[in-house]
Design goal:
This protein is α/β, with parallel strands linked by helices and about 525 residues long. The chain has 20 helices and 21 strands. The protein has a six-stranded mixed beta sheet with strand order 9-21-12-8-11-10, with helices on both faces. A five-stranded parallel beta sheet has the order 4-3-5-6-7, sandwiched between helices. A hairpin with a 2-residue loop joins strand 1 and strand 2. Helix 6 runs parallel beside helix 8, helix 7 crosses helix 10 and helix 10 packs parallel to helix 17.
Length: about 525
């Protein structure tokens, strides 16, 4: 096997090395040339600039002595960045003064070495700067092959919801890592995710109804109606006045990349995954979270607060009332339980200013709904240009992270932390990029959602559909005794025969929710403490 190192096909890396004692470095140059590098030695910064200006193909990397007579290393570095800003520069110096290091790093150097250097140090620097991505990809490929069998075994043996939490967490972290390196092994991880989604759908279909029957016992997962009692109530009773921020339609992967934004003002004290109820849509999940009840319980106990699927009214218009009912049930005055919903920059700014001015001082609990992620997901389905940008989960995460870093949310988080209030971050459901249209038949009363449908005589031509013949047994309201519900799994979306091809084209590649997938059901639930309390 050739010992030559290439940074791209047919191209050996070319090095410009500037040092006023270049003759003493001849052994190093011979060593690098034996490894397949082409080295151009020069004895001054002036000569280095002449070579850079005259070399039409450019250099792949420049090694630059910091302490040269005439044009110094730092001066040469500034000029290189003016005419060849993308060329990586490694600064080599006898000076370990921190001020020099700060100047060099501030000038965007690729690496920093202190003399005397040996050939192995130079080779390691080259590998870090020029070959890092290739080496990472090769390592990812090896690790991915090793983990493929391990993850397949874990998927085959998954017997509890805790097993699925761990599988999804590992696959999500791998997906984020591989998307950053643009490794070809991402395809292997994507294949694992699809295998896992198939198995997860079967697991949920086989176990969901028993979870609902066992909700009053310890033998069920933490689900949407459990969050207030389990995670919020203890903080209120201990006098800590928590803030619960519910970011609508947030997947675990999106939370992982958003976490550093929250970590600027908070430290994480607990981080877990909970399981959303079905259907994984705002109407059912968010009402369940804020009431502490299953949808059918809301419908029976407070029929005036449950809005039917066919109603033109907003399905979550009674969230604040449901939250206040929960508070009064536990002996809290409802005027000390605050509900805020933000839908745009102006509402976030207003809320941020409110926390800056008072920290919402009278609140025992403040619930904040942040709708941007859900709005983004729906916009992908409606806007061709945005769909071109959000062609993958990774791309959608990037858009969300950009918004987080440039929106007033950062100021709001800082003001919450300055008020000394703990923060619980969660979501009501996630979403998944759909790709497989399924022909669905039903009566005239059937609903329109793409990942689930209620109606009479409803059926779908797919094995990846969960049929709930008696919705009340799944904790869901039924408009009549003959109403049933179907919920799509994997990446399928449910369409009626009328204009089937048109809608299949329209929604293919869009992000939808309401169905059964790890991305929609397995959700982040994180408690954070202000760093100001440390």
């Amino acid at each position: 096997m050739s010992d030559f190192i290439h940074i791209k096909s047919g191209h050996c890396a070319s090095i410009l090395w500037a040092d006023d004692e270049i003759d003493l470095l001849r052994p190093h140059i011979i060593f690098l040339e034996a490894k397949g590098y082409r080295v151009t030695p020069v004895a001054s910064g002036t000569d280095a600039m002449k070579h850079i200006a005259s070399n039409t193909t450019g250099y792949d990397i420049v090694f630059l002595d910091e302490n040269m007579p005439g044009l110094s290393g730092l001066d040469t570095l500034d000029r290189i960045k003016d005419i060849a800003p993308l060329t990586p520069v490694v600064l080599i110096t006898k000076n370990d003064d921190e001020h020099i290091m700060d100047l060099a790093v501030g000038s965007r150097i690729a690496d920093y070495l202190i003399k005397p250097v040996n050939p192995s140090q130079i080779l390691l620097s080259l590998k870090k700067v020029l070959h890092c991505r290739r080496l990472i990809c090769e390592n990812d490929s090896r690790r991915c092959r090793e983990r493929y069998l391990d993850m397949n075994t874990a998927i085959d043996c998954a017997a509890t919801i805790g097993d699925w939490h761990e599988i999804y967490r590992r696959l999500t972290h791998d997906s984020i890592s591989l998307s950053r390196t643009q490794s070809d092994t991402a395809a292997i991880n994507d294949s694992l995710i699809e295998t896992a989604e198939d198995a997860f759908f079967r697991y949920v279909r086989n176990n969901y109804m028993s979870w609902i029957r066992l909700r009053e016992t310890a033998d069920h997962p933490v689900m949407s109606p459990d969050i207030l009692d389990r995670n919020v109530l203890p903080l209120i009773r201990s006098g800590k006045r928590p803030v619960m921020m519910l970011i609508d339609n947030l997947t675990l992967g999106q939370w992982i990349i958003a976490r550093p934004v929250f970590a600027e003002a908070f430290r994480i004290t607990s981080e877990e995954i909970y399981t959303a109820i079905l259907p994984t849509s705002t109407q059912y999940c968010r009402n369940a979270i804020l009431s502490g009840m299953m949808p059918d319980d809301i419908h029976r106990r407070f029929p005036q607060l449950w809005i039917d699927e066919h109603s033109p009214d907003g399905k979550n218009r009674n969230e604040e009332t449901l939250l206040h009912n929960w508070a009064e049930k536990h002996g809290f005055q409802k005027n000390r339980i605050s509900y805020r919903i933000t839908t745009d920059t102006a509402s976030l700014q207003s809320l941020s200013q409110s926390f800056r001015d008072s920290g919402a001082a009278d609140d025992l609990l403040t619930v904040i709904i942040v709708n941007f992620s859900d709005m983004l997901s729906h916009a992908v389905a409606r806007t061709p240009m945005l769909r071109e940008l959000a062609t993958s989960d990774s791309a959608l995460r990037t858009i969300l992270l950009s918004w987080l870093r440039h929106s007033p949310l950062q100021k709001l988080l800082r003001h919450i932390a300055e008020a000394g209030r703990p923060l619980i971050v969660t979501t009501d459901h996630g979403s998944i990029r759909v790709s497989d249209p399924v022909r669905t038949c039903a009566g005239e009363d059937a609903t329109d959602a793409l990942r689930y449908k209620f109606g009479k005589n409803i059926s779908a031509a797919s094995r990846s559909v969960f049929m709930i013949r008696r919705p009340e047994e799944a904790g869901l309201p039924a408009t009549s005794i003959s109403t049933s519900c179907i919920i799509a799994g994997r990446r399928e979306f449910l369409l009626y025969p009328n204009n089937f091809s048109h809608y299949a084209r329209t929604f293919n590649g869009s992000y939808q929710h309401g169905g059964i997938s790890m991305q929609e059901m397995l959700l982040p639930l994180t408690t954070l403490t202000p760093k100001i309390n440390d």
